[in-house]
Design a protein that fits this description.
By secondary structure, this protein is of the alpha/beta class. The protein is built from 12 helices and 8 strands. The longest helix is centred in the first third of the chain and has 17 residues. It binds guanosine-5'-diphosphate (GDP). Guanosine-5'-diphosphate binds next to helix 6.
């Protein structure tokens, strides 16, 4: 995960980690390299610039050059700042409501259906919840089939209405069904498009208004870098969602989405997807991720 970024940051700290006297010039050079590493990871220019500015201010504030081990302190300052950049705290999902209604949003191919299954499985096994998965992609019968396959695999019931092409109605009916059948979590998988368009936004917004979910999650493919951030912004403007799900972190992703999304939409990353299997889901911990990046 983020191997390229880790390597570049490691190289950036090379001089500071060496012996010999460390000067202000060394620190400035290191920060420049850190900024370059962030830009290479597809972090937005402004975010990268502000990042190094904050680290520099802290380094000056803590009189880094006079400390016993300036190299170690600089690594710590960068690690703390990376943690902050990714949201600081771990934020869980709201399981209130009866039933808890969770709405999935995002583009087609981002991993919504897969993640809906993973989350259902997670809630079922870790939180002993009775989960209902709901297929609301009325345009692609294959999407409903895919959800049904996932449901069978994890032993979770799937609600779908063949022939009904009104996703608002389907989700409302599904919630009624859940109440009548002892389900306390309803996960609604919605239709995505290949790019943001008005029709999709109106549809998801209508579902959102009609069912007032406890959690609205935005699912995004971490491989898409700055596009991921722009899409997040477009969905957040419409839905004011509660959290981000970053998928495909097992791939060769550069890290830009993970590092930028929080500061752009000011919403926490709640879970990550690390593979195609139902078990490949992790709660997102900004501090552990920063630790991982800095090795
Ligand atoms: P949707 O269109 O948003 O519902 O996306 P899907 O759930 O169908 O996922 C699109 C593709 O991405 C599928 O082939 C999934 O197996 C794959 N996928 C989803 N999440 C992950 C992940 O975390 N890692 C990897 N490697 N593949 C994933």
């Amino acid at each position: 995960m983020f191997n390229n970024l880790s390597d570049k940051l490691d190289k950036a700290f090379h001089v500071l980690k060496g012996h010999g006297k460390i000067t202000e010039v060394n620190v400035a050079e290191t920060l420049k390299e850190v900024r370059r590493a962030l830009l290479d990871a597809d972090v937005n220019f402004k975010i990268a610039k502000e990042f190094t500015k904050r680290v520099k201010e802290k380094a000056i504030g803590q009189d880094v050059l006079t400390t016993l081990n300036p190299g170690q302190l600089m690594v710590k300052l960068v690690k703390d700042e990376l943690t902050e950049l990714m949201g600081g705290e771990t934020v869980g999902i709201n399981l209130g409501g009866s039933p808890t209604v969770i709405l999935m949003s995002g583009l087609q191919g981002s991993g919504k259906t897969t993640f809906s299954g993973k989350l259902a499985n997670y809630l079922k096994t870790k939180k002993t919840k009775q989960v209902l998965l709901v297929g609301c992609d009325v345009y692609r019968p294959a999407a409903i089939n895919q959800l049904q396959v996932v449901g069978e695999q994890i032993g979770v019931e799937v609600y779908a209405e063949v022939g009904n092409n009104n996703p608002v109605e389907i989700s409302q009916n599904a919630i009624k069904y859940a109440k009548a059948n002892g389900k306390n979590v309803v996960i609604i998988d919605t239709a995505g498009r290949l790019a943001v368009d008005d029709e999709m936004m109106t549809e998801i917004s209508n579902i959102h208004k009609a069912i007032e979910p406890q959690e609205t999650l935005f699912v995004v493919d971490s491989m898409t870098g700055q596009d991921a951030v722009n899409t997040a912004k477009a969905f957040n403007d419409i839905l004011n969602f509660d959290g981000v799900i970053l998928t495909k972190l097992d791939g060769d992703t550069r890290g830009g989405a993970a590092l930028s999304i929080k500061s752009v939409v000011n919403k926490p990353i709640k879970f990550i997807g690390t593979g195609e299997k139902m078990e490949a889901i992790d709660v997102f911990h900004p501090d552990r991720m920063a630790e991982r990046i800095l090795g």
